[in-house]
Specification:
CATH topology of the largest domain in chain A: MetI-like fold
CATH class of the largest domain in chain A: Mainly Alpha
Distance between the termini of chain B: 35 Å
Number of helices of chain B: 9
Number of strands of chain B: 20
Structural class of chain B: alpha+beta
Radius of gyration of chain A: 26 Å
Shape of chain B: elongated
Number of domains of chain B: 2
Number of domains of chain A: 2
Strand order of the largest sheet of chain B: 6-7-8-3-9-10
Strand content of chain A: under 5%
Oligomer: heterodimer
Largest interface: A-B, 23 and 32 residues
Order of helices and strands of chain B: EEEHEEEHHHEHEHEEHHEEEEEEEEEEH
Helix content of chain B: 10-25%
CATH architecture of the largest domain in chain A: Orthogonal Bundle
Largest sheet of chain A: 2 strands, antiparallel
Helix content of chain A: 55-70%
Largest sheet of chain B: 6 strands, mixed
């Protein structure tokens, strides 16, 4: 009998016991069982995160000694901020000393710019595909879909060559430009905008809107939930991007968090404590963004636009 | 305030489909023109071309003294009320009403004044801070109307604005619309497929079919003197009865011999029947012009028929009949008329109010064409 069998057996016994207590209301047993399963799954998912928090605050010497936290008696000695102190120390480089906060700013800057640029072009592209009729529209869509089938890594070499040729190496343009028009984003926005009634656009046209003002004043507010989701996904994608900055950025002072953190556990270093402390800090900005945008996903704004 | 003039306006789509085939329409200043017709007749396309939402393939559209063929919708000085309201869902009622004024850079005080005037007029004062989704269908319709009125445009365009309301609300809103037009006196073009709306609202009615304008006239004229069989059949509930037969003469007077053999003596003509004698024609009789008792001087104009269904409707009685030659028709009788199902009866036609049409869907009304 392996562990899964044991687990299932325990659940079955638990259900039997719960059922025995409330035989007239079998639903209660199911509800309790459901919560137990959910709590177990939540624990399973959150365990690595908890491990990360513990590891970041543990003294580097005892990192591997305990799975999670040291016993309470050892806390004074073995729980400290030495990983963070090490992380924020000056790092000598060819361009002089670089500090960790510089990488945070780099990452924030790059992720924000990427998100804004991608949102701008994707939403406009999506609007055009959803609401304008033009010759060759189907072909354009087909071409875009086909381009989604090609994995990004395959394009790394040609794009690298292109970036070198146009002299954008070691600049953030190399990271922003190739992804400025996200096909995925355009499709996402197209799907959201296609459901907006044409009457609304025509009402705007008669009311005195220019085409751009229709897009900004009428369309964008109606796809706000989608925009929030898209922003989050794009921001995370750029924030976590390791390959791009690793390939296109050389100067230490321009590097982003994923690349820098990787340097702590590279071939020539094994500062796992510092690495994990940095990782913990790197989680904070996307988490804040998520909580800010959370309510955007929920509300469907287009109800009440037209009858029904 | 402006007159609207359509000259040979055509709309042909890329696939070759002609939605509007050479429409000529002269709408006077302050007039309420109703464009009516069945689905797909081109009425909405015509309205959209006037609005500038649809390009025209040929012809000219004039609003006021200006040809607007190439003028964008926002510069045509028109306002449109859409079938499904098309309110901006993310804006409050106030913002919805103020939006067009804001775009035209009106001063804030003026916007506020105009919006509150319109809200007062339409009784939506208490709704100004609400979003459209919090309003009922009727209230949304009022906001849509308000959005058009607030701009004080040269012409209003209505695209079936009442079709999403329930039957009761539709009748009251219809009356309000009429009162509103009397008050504002703005040229209005109103598209509908509902003949009751057309009859009650329009100063004149424009009946369209198959992309062509069939008749433009005041409501009662269209009802009493339809130019062709389509117009005759489109207006009226129940619709006009059409019975087949041929034109002939009897005792020197023109007569219509029904396929059943029954003979209807027509009133003495001005010679308009002479080219049609002994030809297959159609006689059109409105249900209310059929009686069970012969009318004075028309004792011979009876059609023998069998009663199939009797529908007592309170104010009248609709009787469905089949003639001996299996031609179906409806009579609209007094509610107290004694008539039984499956019985043979003779229905009398008021020939003074009947029409003779050429065969075909849009066969010409030869009774009036000579007048």
């Amino acid at each position: 009998m392996n562990s899964i069998h044991t687990f299932l057996l325990v659940l079955a016994v638990l259900f039997a016991v719960l059922y025995a207590f409330q035989p007239k209301r079998p639903k209660i047993a199911f509800i309790y069982l459901r919560y137990i399963v959910l709590i177990l799954i939540a624990a399973l998912v959150l365990a690595p995160f908890f491990w990360l928090i513990c590891a970041a605050f543990k003294d580097p010497d005892v990192l591997m000694k305990y799975t999670f936290l040291p016993p309470l008696t050892e806390w004074a000695k073995e729980i400290n901020l030495s990983n963070f102190k090490e992380l924020f120390k000056n790092q000598p480089s060819m361009e002089g000393d670089v500090y960790f906060w510089q990488y945070i700013i780099n990452s924030l800057f790059l992720a924000s710019i990427t998100t804004i640029v991608q949102m701008f072009f994707s939403s406009m592209g999506g609007y055009a595909l959803a609401k304008y009729d033009f010759r060759g529209k189907k072909m354009v869509m087909l071409f875009m879909l086909a381009s989604m089938m090609i994995p990004g890594v395959v394009l790394l070499a040609p794009v690298y060559k292109l970036i070198v040729n146009i002299g954008l190496m070691d600049t953030y343009w190399a990271l922003v430009l190739p992804g400025a028009c996200s096909v995925f984003g355009m499709f996402l926005f197209r799907q959201a905008i296609v459901g907006i009634p044409n009457d609304l656009i025509e009402a705007g046209r008669i009311d005195g809107c220019s085409e751009f003002s229709i897009f900004m004043n009428l369309i964008m507010p109606l796809v706000r939930p989608m925009t929030g989701a898209f922003c989050l996904v794009t921001f995370l994608g750029s924030w976590n991007n390791f390959l791009g900055p690793q390939v296109y950025i050389n100067a230490q002072s321009k590097l982003t968090l994923p690349v820098v953190l990787n340097q702590y556990v590279g071939v020539y270093a094994n500062q796992y404590g510092v690495f994990l402390a940095g990782t913990l800090l790197a989680i904070i900005p996307p988490a804040i963004l998520f909580f800010c945008l959370q309510k955007e996903f929920i509300s469907g704004l287009s109800s009440g636009a037209v009858k029904g | 305030m402006a007159k609207v003039f359509l000259k040979d306006v055509q709309k042909v789509y890329d696939n070759g489909f002609a939605a509007v085939k050479g429409a000529n329409l002269d709408i006077a200043d302050k007039e309420f023109m109703v464009i009516v017709g069945p689905s797909g007749c081109g009425k909405t396309t015509t309205l959209r071309m006037i609005a500038g939402l649809e390009e025209i393939s040929a012809g000219t559209i004039t609003i006021g003294d200006r040809v607007v063929n190439d003028v964008p919708p926002k510069d045509r000085d028109i306002a449109m009320v859409f079938q499904n309201y098309a309110l901006y869902p993310h804006m409050t009622v106030f913002q919805n009403l103020a939006f067009s004024l804001k775009l035209r850079k009106f001063p804030k005080a003026e916007i506020k004044k105009r919006v509150s005037e319109v809200a007062e007029m339409l009784d939506i004062n208490s709704q100004l801070d609400k979003k459209p989704k919090a309003l009922s269908g009727g209230q949304r319709q009022r906001v849509a109307l308000g959005r058009a009125i607030v701009r004080n445009p040269a012409a209003f365009l209505f695209d079936e604005p009442l079709s999403n309301l329930d039957a009761k609300l539709r009748v009251t809103t219809r009356a309000e619309l009429k009162a509103l037009h009397r008050r504002l006196s703005t040229t209005s073009i109103y598209v509908t497929h509902d003949q009751a709306e057309a009859m009650t609202l329009g100063d004149r009615i424009c009946v369209m079919y198959n992309g062509e304008i069939q008749q433009v006239a005041p409501p009662m004229e269209v009802y009493d003197k339809p130019v062709n069989r389509f117009v005759a059949g489109f207006l009226g509930t129940p619709p006009m009865n059409f019975l087949k037969g041929k034109l002939s003469t009897k005792d020197g007077s023109p007569a219509f011999i029904l396929n059943d053999g029954d003979v209807i003596t027509l009133k003495n003509s001005n010679g308009q029947y002479k080219n049609y004698l002994e030809k297959e024609m159609i006689i059109g009789v409105r249900p209310e012009h059929l009686t069970v008792e012969p009318l004075a001087g028309q004792a011979h104009n009876g059609i023998k028929a069998k009663v199939n269904v009797v529908e007592p409707l309170g104010d009248r009685k609709d009787v469905y009949l089949t003639s001996t030659a299996n031609q179906k028709f409806i009579a609209n009788l007094d509610p107290h008329t004694k008539i039984d199902v499956d019985h043979q009866v003779t229905m009398y036609i008021d020939v003074n109010k009947s029409h003779i049409f050429e065969p075909g869907e849009t066969g010409k009304n030869i009774t009036i064409s000579a007048n």
